Amino acid sequence: MRTQKLAIIGLGHVGSSVLATAVQTELFGEIVLIDPRDHVAFGEGLDQTHAGGLLSRKNITIYAGSYGDVADANIIIIAATHVYPNGEIPADRQDLLTENLPIIHEIMKNIVRHTQTAMLIFITNPADTIIHIAASYDYPRNLLLSTGTMLDSSRLRQLLGQRYQVDPKAISAYMMGEHGYAAFPVLSHLTIGGIAYEQLSDYFPEIPLLTAEEIKEKVVQAAYDVFETKNGVTNVAVAQSAIDIARCVLLDEKSIYPVSVPMSEYEYGFSGRCAYSVPCILGKDGVEKKLLVTLNEWEKEKLAEAVTSIRHSIALTE
Ligand SMILES: NC(=O)c1ccc[n+]([C@@H]2O[C@H](COP(=O)([O-])OP(=O)(O)OC[C@H]3O[C@@H](n4cnc5c(N)ncnc54)[C@H](O)[C@@H]3O)[C@@H](O)[C@H]2O)c1
Q1: Average pLDDT of the residues of the chain
Q2: Among 57, 68, 111, 295, which one is most buried in terms of CB atoms within 10 A?
Q3: Are 253 and 280 in contact (CB under 8 A)?
Q4: Left (φ > 0), alpha (ψ -120 to 50) or beta: where does 154 sit?
Q5: What is the number of other CB atoms lying within 10 angstroms of the CB of residue 302?
């Protein structure tokens, strides 16, 4: 009998958080770590393995490996990125593209050589362009996605949860579009405890209703509140997002998450191929259905802006 196997590619701040979160979930019996800085993959694996003697921990096999080891992986999470000297990480995610493009090509070439069945979950930025590039390889389209605006959506629910003093999980809401400056909230489908956004003032008259533009700005800024205080690193919440997706696929949960996926011109009518975040049903077959929700005029405008921004980035790769 086989256990569930996870491969993590890129063991920096994000990859090591993915590892720590994955271990806590107890979903995986085997975890392989791949990073060109062999000593980093080895050390992260060893550090986690040392906790294996504690009564709270399951006896999981964790080791530094190579691409041959992804052949029987169920889930592959990619958090590889160019390492900037002196930690001078560009704040604009798009500025990571030049350095990360060859890294993603190298990773995809290696993955397709060994498997066609693992769910690929990309974290590497710029998220949407990266998934567009990954989708250019001979790999099942339904088995690749980027966490995209999943993290932005969690920030949105957290922000509104604090504002209305309710559990963020009581809020059904998501961000769509670009994982970046052009992410936008879809207020036309947002509910708090089933109450539509525009009716919230009836229930919470003391709380002024923020405009969609104000919410967008606050959510986009939230990433930088972490980035600026943690010296260019945001690692914990995105790691949890990636593992939530992994769990959803492994348990065939059919949850709906906003994730970045390849989009054709027949979806939302933008000519040519692109990739951006839309709510998707995720299950054992990966991305099982994209929910192309009806958008209001402001949201259509913002989606067009997001597509333009991502297209500009994609054009730099051609
Ligand atoms: N999508 C999101 O919501 C989100 C959130 C946070 C961070 N990120 C992104 O996650 C990525 C990782 O960030 P980080 O803070 O962990 O960076 P980091 O610099 O700490 O780690 C990057 C790791 O990737 C490894 N790497 C480099 N080239 C590689 C290759 N060819 N194959 C495999 N591994 C390789 C490096 O050796 C390093 O260990 C970045 O692109 C960052 O922008 C995305």
Answers
A1: 95
A2: 111
A3: no
A4: alpha
A5: 24
Which residues are annotated binding-site positions? Answer: 10-15, 35, 100, 123-125
**What is the pLDDT confidence band of residue 9, given thresholds at 50, 70 and 90?**
very high
ipTM of the complex in this document: 0.99
Nearest Cα residue to 44 out of 56, 32, 54? 32
| Of 37, 66, 81, best ligand 1 pocket probe by most atoms within 8 Å of the beta carbon | 81
- Domains of the chain as residue ranges with CATH: 5-146 (3.40.50.720), 150-315 (3.90.110.10)
pLDDT for 225 equals: 87
39 tagged catalytic? no
* Percentage of the chain modeled with pLDDT above 70: 100
**The 3-state secondary structure of 99-158, one letter per residue:** HHHHHHHHHHHHHHHHCCCCEEEECCCCHHHHHHHHCCCCCCHHHEEECCCHHHHHHHHH
pLDDT tens for each residue of 173-213: 999 999 999 999 999 999 999 999 999 999 999 999 999 99
Ligand 1 atom with least separation from CA of 41? 39
pTM over 0.95: yes
Residue 238 Cβ < 6 Å to ligand 1: yes
121 lines ligand 1 (CB under 6 A): no
Q: Annotated binding site for NAD(+), which residues?
A: 10-15, 35, 100, 123-125
Beta partners for residue 24, in sequence order: none
Q: Determine which one of 39, 114, 179, 312 is catalytic.
A: 179
CB 66 within 8 A of CB 34: yes
Closest atom of ligand 1 to CA, residue 102: 31
Q: Give residue 62's Cα distance to chain centre.
A: 23
